[in-house]
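FYI - complex with zinc ion, inputs then prediction.
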Amino acid sequence: MVTTAEPVTKLVEAFNKLPGIGPKSAQRLTYYLLSRPGEEAKALAEAILALKEKTRLCSVCFYITDCDPCRICQDRERDHSKICVVERPSDIPPLERTGKYNGVYHVLHGPISPAQGIGPGELKAKEFLSRLQDGSVTEVILATNPNLEGETTAMYLRRMILPLGIRITRLARGLPFGADLEYADDMTLSQALEDRQEF
Ligand SMILES: [Zn+2]
């Protein structure tokens, strides 16, 4: 016999699908929301809806944005001659938090992964290379993850950029191999950025 009200079960299941949220946390979050005023749950529901409905990809760098170009691409204070290439939109906030980078970005939306059949054509690689054509970019920082797929991606991009004579750097080796940029601590990331090496 089912003893739990269906809306409760549904929300527990939905929370349970989120990364890092197990069944117990999912249940705790659900009952917490039940105990809160209606407006609070409504505000959360609206924030979740707006996340998908009011955001899109920047037409220049492919970061998540609610205006196009995104705030980073629009910022005249930033150094547009430097582009830092990352795999995921979620890699940008940690790099921004270091406060050590004042250039712009390009989000590939994944690494090259032969095992999963993902080649450069499935990524925003072509769009990236076309950003380099007008000669205004002087340095590309390859900040793909320090793992096999990230290295493969960096090697591919390096091969494509080399003929253009643009300086290519890679985040320093302080980052543990196999790690995810997204979860690197601020100090390590900050150091990796400052000590970036020719690649
Ligand atoms: Zn942008």
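Helices lie at 6-16, 23-35, 38-53, 71-74, 92-98, 125-131, 148-161, 186-194. Strands lie at 56-57, 64-65, 79-86, 103-107, 139-142, 167-170, 197-198.
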